[in-house]
Amino acid sequence: MKSVWFFEDANLFNILCPHKFKAYKKGHDFDAYKKQDYIYFEDDSANKIYLIEKGKVKIGYYNEEGDEIVKAILTRGELFGETAIFGDSKRDEFAQSVDNKTSICPISVETMHELMRDNKTFSFKVYKFIGLKLKRLERRLQLLLFKDTKTRLLEFLHELCTDYGYDCEKTGDKIIQHPYTQKEIASLIGTSRPTLNILLKELKEENIIAFSRKEIRIHENIA
User: Fold this and answer.
1) What is the pLDDT of residues 142-163, one digit of tens each?
2) Does position 18 have pLDDT exceeding 70, yes or no?
3) Which secondary structure element, helix H or strand E, spans residue 175, and what is its range?
């Protein structure tokens, strides 16, 4: 399975959700999804943008052989379906909940355009987010195409460290408390779960990391 992962620096839910804007707060609801529920399918009409209030969402598509290609697994505060802002009328990917209690804030394209037109700061944040996302996607595509699996895992751990890591004052380790399962990590770096387990054990034996289900400790600088 091939895949691309990306992470965002800001919790966009706190910035973009219509609940933050008085004119749009009344009558605005959240959509709830269970595990494996689809938010949208490929070729669905693209008339909304979505913000994750709670849970996780998988973004992907199916290739000509019918294999699932995972582009990203997104978490709270992240935006998806944003190409609708630029006039895309059809989806070229699917979005699927991977948690049992995923809560989504749907925003119509019309509402998003109004918010962007009436609030320059808001508009700047949206464009900055999309630009950052495209740059990161390009970099990860290059890694996926030209780097071996261990290098992709190390790059992934570096990204996790940036997004979820903090320093342990007693040991000097970087501690990462992340939201991903091993199956999801394997999908995101384009490998199998058994291969991921082998690589994690190798890094542990090399005293580079220690890991448990939801926590990774990095003993060395992997940047």
Assistant:
1) 777 788 999 999 988 988 888 7
2) no
3) strand 174-177
- Give the containing element (helix H, strand E) for 60: strand 57-62
Q: Which residues contact 96 (CB under 8 A, 6 or more apart)?
A: 36, 37, 38, 39, 57, 58, 60
Which residues does 148 contact at the CB level (< 8 Å), separation at least 6?
Answer: none
Query: What are the pLDDT digits (tens) for 49-69?
Result: 998 888 999 998 888 888 888
Name the one residue in this structure whose structure tokens are 């948690």.
99
Q: Can you read off the two tokens belonging to residue 90?
A: 């059809």
Taking the C-alpha atoms of residue 135 and residue 206, their distance in angstroms, rounded to an integer, is 32
Integer Cα distance of 126 and 190 in angstroms: 29
Burial class (CB in 10 A: 0-12, 13-18, 19+), 73: buried
- DSSP codes of every residue in 83-144: GGGGT--B-SSEEEE-STTEEEEEEEHHHHHHHHHH-HHHHHHHHHHHHHHHHHHHHHHHHH
CA distance 1 to 8: 23
